[in-house]
Amino acid sequence: MIDDASALSRTGIPSSSDRPKAKTPAHGLELLIGSNIFRNTNGIVKIQGKEQLVIEFQPEQGPLLVTMDLYNENGAHIAHLRRNVFRLNLSERFAVEAHRSQQDVQSDYPWVRLTDRQSGSPAIEIHMVSAHRIHIVSGKFYSHRGVSVDITANFCRIGTSMTLFGEIKDAQGGMVSLGSEHAPVFPTRP
Predict the structure, then answer these.
(1) Which of 47, 50, 53, 48 is nearest to 20 (CA)?
(2) Whose CB among 28, 55, 75, 186 lies 3.0–4.6 Å from 43's, allowing a Cys bridge?
(3) Which structural domain, as residue segments, surrounds residue 44?
(4) Would 85 be classed as within a structural domain?
């Protein structure tokens, strides 16, 4: 496990030996990203060739656990959330709020929200909607290449080169991969 913030900022998401293992049922998690459905996933989302988001659910502990790297518009690593706890959070820019489900309420599912304190907007909001189904409701953050990632109820957009509307894909037990690994490092912005 990487405890040193400077080492973490150089490496981003920990190596596979340090990264939390995504706890998934035998048939995998179904991730809803905007209006897109990714079936049979391991809970890992790779954006532009880099694992940037890991979602875990451990029924015995109750909460939804999120591990995520956050970058700025220049691609600089500015925050690292590991299982709902910040290990790096430059200038305390982000806040995390996690809701544990109440065991005595059947329809009360856990959720996690990261808020960008500079804009006041959610950087990402993730809800469990059933036992093996997780919905990334909204998001506005950057990839490690400084490319904008926008998630709304209707779409998932990576920069100006990729927009997904209503896609249904089977990840066959693997990760969700969004955006091209070969996109320009710092695309020109208008």
Answers:
(1) 53
(2) 55
(3) 5-15+22-170
(4) yes
What's the predicted TM-score (pTM) here? 0.80
Q: Which residue has the higher pLDDT, 35 or 26?
A: 35
Alpha-carbon gap, residue 137 to 139, rounded angstroms:
7
Mean pLDDT across 43-61: 90
Dihedral of CA atoms 7, 13, 18, 24 in degrees, nearest 10, equals 160
Q: In sequence order, what are the residues at sequence separation of 6 or more whose Cβ sits closer than 8 angstroms to the Cβ of residue 53?
A: 44, 45, 47, 66, 67, 68, 124
Task: Give the C-alpha separation, 151 to 142, whole Å.
Answer: 11
Bridge partners, 115 (sequence order) = 95, 122
Tokens of 137: 């409701």
Alpha carbon distance 53, 68 (integer Å): 5
CA distances from 138 to 12, 32, 58, 71, 149 (A): 22, 10, 22, 17, 10
Looking at the structure of the chain, the number of domains it has is: 1
Range from 2-11, 21-30, 170-179 that averages highest in pLDDT: 170-179
Helix/strand/coil for 61: coil
Domain assignment present for residue 163? The answer is yes
Instruction: Give the torsion sign (CA, 8, 78, 175, 48).
Output: negative
- By residue count, the chain amounts to 190
- Residue 129 main-chain phi, psi, to 5 deg: -110, -15
- 90 in helix, strand or coil? helix
